[in-house]
TrEMBL record:
<feature type="compositionally biased region" description="Low complexity">
    <location>
        <begin position="14"/>
        <end position="40"/>
    </location>
</feature>
<dbReference type="InterPro" id="IPR051781">
    <property type="entry name" value="Metallo-dep_Hydrolase"/>
</dbReference>
<dbReference type="Pfam" id="PF01979">
    <property type="entry name" value="Amidohydro_1"/>
</dbReference>
<feature type="region of interest" description="Disordered">
    <location>
        <begin position="493"/>
        <end position="518"/>
    </location>
</feature>
<feature type="region of interest" description="Disordered">
    <location>
        <begin position="1"/>
        <end position="40"/>
    </location>
</feature>
<dbReference type="InterPro" id="IPR011059">
    <property type="entry name" value="Metal-dep_hydrolase_composite"/>
</dbReference>
<dbReference type="InterPro" id="IPR032466">
    <property type="entry name" value="Metal_Hydrolase"/>
</dbReference>
<feature type="domain" description="Amidohydrolase-related">
    <location>
        <begin position="123"/>
        <end position="459"/>
    </location>
</feature>
<protein>
    <submittedName>
        <fullName>Amidohydrolase family protein</fullName>
    </submittedName>
</protein>
<dbReference type="InterPro" id="IPR006680">
    <property type="entry name" value="Amidohydro-rel"/>
</dbReference>
């Protein structure tokens, strides 16, 4: 979906904004980070007298102790029975709740490492999936693993693989691999595999021929593929072809319409001008052509057809990342905040650009457009609820990198929106813990990732924001650590200055085609 403005690769990236990709198996190299500016991990850490929730659906274990040895959980038991060894660091968590660390399944990061990388673990997000990888993401991951940078565990996509002409022009300085046929598609998969992508990122304008070649070559090389469902490909075919996850709810809306065949024929007629040098202009053109089809799909929702599709997704183990936050931001503009305490962790110049960007994207809407788009958003919530009831595994992702989204903090808002869609709190928590663990194939033997909360999130999912402390890759970030490190981020944001030049006009906002201006 929408991603933030990018800077040219030979310039300093804009802090707090988004970037692009590059990484073999959805499991990254294990991270054993010793967070910079955090205390070294003791040989044994004892978290005592806490209520422990090992998984979102497990029975809460009151007054329990967790022993971590060299960063890994080695014992769990009632605090009255499990006594820490004399040399352990003991942290009394009486009245606290320990849950798994959270995973953010759809981000786009570009910016100052002093801002972006630390915000994730400091807000309880211990793993992330970067959806448009670039070399610096791999550099960050190496530094996080070596302990010289505080950050989450990264799973990193390839550059986008899209059909020509892509919705993305060359004006952003980001890698897009345009593949027109099966031969080019296979070559692109081999290229990103050699470059170390954790998975192949597929996009909206791929032809069926190119898409199926990507699926076959990815299977041959044993590298997963994930991303958008191409415009003219039935979503059920994406599931049966082995796509690991489908991002956003645009294609889902079209695939659950009784007029899907008619809409697919219309989508095949959508054209992007290959001579247009502006990604924003291409985006606008694409969405102006697609928006009426979305409205038709909303009016022609077929519940039985939807259930058949959801059954196919569930049976094939295809995950869906709804990214409700960015849908909400672009489709419920009357609800956009005018301020937030979270914004102080991003540069003021970046935050100040958001209203103008949103005005450029949405200011031309008529009252009828606005009413329709609100109904489309409400329909997206219905789709999420129906998918959940049908057993489709959902993962929480925000498309962080867009305006009105702050790294780390945004995931907690996504969880709230999933709750608004009707998911019970344990199921919402699963979208950020057990489900992405399985999707990303995170190693079970990895160092511990834990989130310590002041109150029970199973009573109200909004309590995931009520953070006491965090265990990030086996390292304990105490309340004092969090206060100090967040203050460092705030200071870095306050001292940030804008890039000398902007690649895009101030009103431009590139992003995924499903969330371009309506």
């Amino acid at each position: 979906m929408s991603k933030p403005p990018h800077t040219h690769p030979d310039r300093r990236p804009a802090p707090g904004t988004t970037a692009a990709p590059t990484t073999t198996d959805l499991a990254p190299a294990p991270a054993t980070a010793s967070p910079r500016a955090a205390r070294p991990a003791p040989p044994v850490l004892a978290l005592t007298h806490a209520t422990v929730l090992l998984t979102p659906h497990s029975r809460p274990l009151p007054d329990h102790t967790l022993l971590l040895t060299d960063g890994r959980i080695t014992a769990t038991g009632p605090s009255s029975q499990l006594k820490p060894p004399p040399h352990a660091r003991v942290v009394d968590l009486t009245g606290k709740y320990v849950v798994p660390g959270l995973t953010e399944s759809h981000i786009h990061t570009l910016g100052d490492e002093a801002l972006t990388a630390p915000l994730f673990p400091l807000t309880g997000i211990t793993s992330v999936r970067e959806m448009w990888g670039q070399p610096f993401h791999h550099a960050w991951r190496r530094r996080i693993s070596s302990g010289t940078l505080l950050g989450p565990r990264f799973v990193i996509a390839s550059p986008i693989l899209d059909g020509p002409p892509s919705i993305w022009a060359d004006d952003l300085g980001l890698p897009v691999l345009e593949v027109a046929d099966a031969q080019a598609a296979r070559a692109a998969v081999r290229k990103v595999h050699r470059e170390g992508a954790d998975f192949v990122k597929v996009y909206s304008r791929l032809s069926p021929e190119a898409y199926y070649a990507i699926a076959d070559e990815a299977k041959r090389l044993r590298i997963p593929f994930a991303g958008h469902c191409p415009d003219i490909l039935p979503m059920s075919r994406a599931a049966t072809s082995g796509q690991r996850s489908i991002e956003h709810l645009h294609a889902m809306l079209l695939a659950t319409s009784s007029r899907e065949d008619e809409i697919r024929r219309a989508l095949a007629e959508v054209r992007i001008d290959p001579t247009d040098p502006s990604s924003l202009s291409r985006y606008g053109s694409w969405f102006r052509q697609v928006h009426p089809l979305e409205w038709q799909a909303t009016l022609s929702y077929d519940k039985s057809r939807a259930r058949r599709l959801f059954d196919t997704l569930a049976e094939n183990g295809t995950y869906v990342t709804p990214t409700l936050l960015v849908h909400h931001s672009l489709e419920r503009i009357a609800d956009l905040p005018t301020s937030s305490p979270d914004w102080k962790y991003l540069p003021a110049w970046a935050v100040a650009s958001w209203p103008a960007i949103w005005e450029a994207m949405t200011g031309s809407r008529t009252p009828e457009d606005t009413a329709r788009i609100r109904r489309i958003y409400e329909h997206r919530l219905i789709l999420v609820s129906e998918m959940h009831r049908a057993g489709v595994r959902l993962t929480a992702g925000t498309d962080t990198g867009t305006g009105y989204a702050v790294p780390g903090f945004s995931l907690h808002e996504e969880l709230r929106l999933l709750s608004e869609a009707g998911l019970p709190a344990p199921d919402v928590l699963a979208t950020a813990t057990t489900h992405p663990d399985a999707l990303l194939r995170l190693p079970k033997s990895r160092p511990a990732d834990l989130l310590v909360l002041n109150s029970d999130p199973l009573h109200d999912i909004r309590r995931t924001r009520d953070i006491h402390s965090v265990v990030n890759a086996g390292h304990y970030l105490s309340p004092a650590d969090r206060v100090r490190l967040l203050a460092d981020v705030e200071k870095a944001a306050a001292e940030s200055t804008p890039p000398e030049e902007e690649v895009l006009p101030a009103t431009a906002t590139p992003g995924c085609a499903c969330n371009a201006p309506h």
